[in-house]
Design goal:
The protein is mainly α and 446 residues long. The protein is built from 14 helices and 17 strands. Helix 2 runs parallel beside helix 4. InterPro entries: 6-hairpin_glycosidase_sf, 6hp_glycosidase-like_sf, Glyco_hydro_37.
Length: 446
């Protein structure tokens, strides 16, 4: 790393790796990339056109449906849909993890009130169903999605604290109670319909129909090469047979959130309980999921009692969650970060497969944000900012050409379209907007 913080490590070759991500790619080399990185100069490009577009686009994503209508589940507050497509009106419902990453771009803006509405809607879903479904359609109640409810509630709580709201702690108490209910009902469930905790206290993604394909939809990574989805004819993979490193990292952060909230509220016994639960989960994850020889975290096949050989950006979730040791973080960054960092940002996996949109060469906003947050947490500020710069530049260049943002990008060759996958290329886009705003603000702060 140079004094100016410009990345000097990158993969020498970005050609497709082995079918299961084995170490068959050309070796890494140390080269200067200051001249070729999209943010090589200290002066930021003008992101104002994109930011202005996003500010105006939020209004197009608003929906308010207080009553059930057909398959659509009514919600008490306004919400955001991920996208608006006049040709294919795909979205009229609120989605679980999309909402959190969209909300990141609302904080501190004229639309900040929507953070509270999104959180209240999730609370209402927990009150009604015991968990937050994948999306607000009845046919989505067979599964959930990556559970970011406590993170969204904390965004809202922090706004209340910053404003000096007198009801901040009561709000925290209410949201924590519902978060615990969702956690215990859904994510720690061991019986039908929430059979998720499966092995050594760790959980899996699931679906009430016991469908690997729909469990992959619960993961949000539909469709990917993870969980043996990298084989011909195996689009569904074996998601219910794996304990995903991403999910269990999220569950760890939820348990830490509960402990922090209980401490704040003076509930010492409950705080100790959740702190111990989080510590136990972290210890088990480090034992089962950390591959010391390869230097990264892996999904764990609980049936075969073996780690997955496929490296993906999910490996960086333990850094975001704070459960990785500093030595583990150092090894991840030195050995794997340069392989995932491509000209347009971080690539989802090192292997490609036709029809798998959560794989090479695609990059996705929520994963950029997760990895960047983990890099910041462990002191890799320059690396975090390099990702922010490359991703924002990719979005800005694409916006200049098309006048919109999209769901995913080709980060290997940013001037080319990404792998469309089953759903095609969707314009909008809520979480791309939210992460772009968050990254641009961080870069402007320096």
């Amino acid at each position: 790393m140079e004094d100016g913080g410009v990345m000097t490590l990158r993969a020498r070759d970005t050609e497709r790796r082995g079918a299961r991500g084995e170490d068959t790619a050309p070796a890494l080399e140390v080269i200067e990339v200051a001249a070729e990185g999209p943010m090589a100069t200290p002066e930021l490009p003008d992101y104002r056109p994109v930011l202005d577009y996003i500010t105006g686009f939020w209004d197009r994503l608003f929906r308010f449906h207080p009553h059930d209508e057909g398959t659509l589940i009514g919600l008490p507050r306004a919400y955001l849909v991920p996208s608006v497509d006049p040709v294919r009106p795909l979205f009229q419902e609120m989605y679980y993890w999309d909402s959190y990453f969209s909300a990141l771009g609302l904080v501190g803006t004229m639309h900040e009130w929507l953070v509270f509405d999104l959180a209240e809607n999730m609370a209402a879903l927990v009150e009604r169903f015991g968990f937050v479904p994948n999306g607000t359609r009845y046919y989505f109640t067979s599964r959930s999605q990556p559970p970011f409810f406590t993170k969204l509630a904390k965004l809202a709580y922090d706004i209340k604290v910053a404003r000096g709201d007198a009801d901040a702690d009561e709000y925290l108490r209410h949201m924590t109670r519902l978060g615990v209910r969702e956690h215990e009902t859904c994510w720690l469930g061991e019986k039908h319909p929430h059979e998720r905790r499966k092995y050594r206290g760790l959980s899996r993604y699931h679906d009430i129909n016991y469908s690997h394909f729909l469990a992959s939809c619960e993961s949000g990574w539909d469709h990917s090469t993870r969980c043996d989805g990298d084989r011909p004819g195996s689009e569904a993979g074996r998601w219910m047979d794996f304990l995903p490193v991403c999910l269990n990292s999220i569950l760890y952060t939820r348990e830490r959130d509960f402990a922090e909230a209980m401490t704040r509220l003076g509930a010492t016994t409950e705080a100790n309980y959740w702190r111990e639960a989080a510590d136990a989960r972290a210890a088990t994850m480090r034992e089962l999921m950390w591959d010391a020889d390869r230097g990264l975290f892996c999904d764990f096949d609980w049936k075969a009692e073996a780690r997955s050989p496929l490296p993906t950006l999910a490996a960086f979730y333990p850094m975001w969650a704070g459960l990785a040791t500093q030595d583990q973080a150092n090894e991840m960054v030195s050995r794997w970060f340069p392989r995932f960092l491509l000209p347009g940002g971080l690539v989802t996996s090192l292997d490609s497969f036709p029809g798998r949109q959560w794989a090479y060469p695609n990059g996705w906003a929520p994963l950029q944000w997760i990895v960047v947050s983990g890099l910041d947490r462990y002191g890799f500020t320059a690396e975090a900012n390099e990702v922010r710069r490359r991703w924002c530049d990719t979005c800005a260049h694409a916006f200049a050409a098309s006048g919109t943002l999209v769901e995913k990008y080709n980060v290997a060759e940013p001037h080319r379209e990404p792998e469309h996958g089953l759903y095609g290329l969707i314009e909008g886009f809520g979480w791309t907007n939210g992460v772009f705003v968050d990254f641009a603000r961080a870069l402007q702060r320096g």
